[in-house]
């Protein structure tokens, strides 16, 4: 076993944040070796050509920002140059950019400290963070001491959370300690989106993946304004509103453990990294105009492969799948790069794998991959997440800290 594989295995055993099973049985070796979409033909041969960069020529490096422990999520506040980073053990930290080339630093005092309230075993912890569009409130998604999901709102005053303003927006019982999802984010439409896994266990033991009555295995879309006995309001234009026997909060479903969903800031297209069982990992993609109500197939399917069904649902197959060969184990969804500092990466969706530390770039056209390659960042890290600053520059959040992705 190589040093990198030993490091990945140790981190999986110790931190196990997103891995939903780290077996190594499986087929082809890496992303790009198959074209897992609704059409099995070769997309390049079908007449699609890459309009953007030559991914194999992209040169990148990582610049570390010291002072963070186990960063798992990053958020931006409108009209604020700082980065806000959630650490898995329960603290939200403010990262301040140095002026005129000065060193970026982390404020010593946390914006919010939930370390006494969160469960941190395995995939649990403070998992998500986002600010409201007006910057006046922010929302934390974490597992409490009982292991259940809490989405909590705080007013943001004088650079920190106003603890007296704490309000529970959403609480969801978790039957197992894994597959909590954890993402919370305001979409381009100003609504609050919450990612939830299938509740955990292997092979979806409670059948939540294709159960529209539960909030699990979904991306939810809510308005965080209280209504009746709930801490939120269901938007009337949600895709399942008014349908009997369906949770109206549902926006998308059939997800095992959506570990990071993001919108392309240029066109609003939605990208999801969905952690697979013990063989396949997948990236899901929906154009902005066709995202609501999508069924991504779990647990009838694991990526494009039958699991509890023999045929895919009337839904959406992943744009990319890859196996657990070569030390891969859990997909980490990323961002479409829209910054200015790395021109060769513009328009490329960047994502990675937790165990292997590999990072890939992907270019799509009409929902089909037309170019994909591994991006060499110069070192392997146990990747927890990716982040994006106000200028569209990318960050890598890893077990050993926060890094900015830069041109080499």
Compressed to H and E, one letter per element, the order equals HEEEEEEEEEEEEEEEEEEEEEEEEEEE
Number of distinct beta strands: 27
Distance from first to last alpha carbon = 30 Å
Approximate shape: globular
Structure description:
The chain is mainly β and 408 residues long. It contains one helix and 27 strands. The chain has one helix at residues 3-15; strands spanning 60-65, 71-76, 83-87, 91-96, 105-106, 112-113, 126-131, 137-143, 149-157, 160-172, 184-186, 192-196, 218-222, 250-253, 258-263, 270-274, 280-286, 301-302, 305-306, 320-323, 331-336, 349-353, 359-365, 368-374, 383-388, 394-398, 401-407. Strands 2, 3, 4, 5 and 6 form a five-stranded antiparallel β-sheet that branches. A four-stranded antiparallel β-sheet has the order 1-27-26-25, with no helix packed on it. Strands 7-8-9-10 form a four-stranded antiparallel β-sheet, with no helix packed on it. The protein is globular.
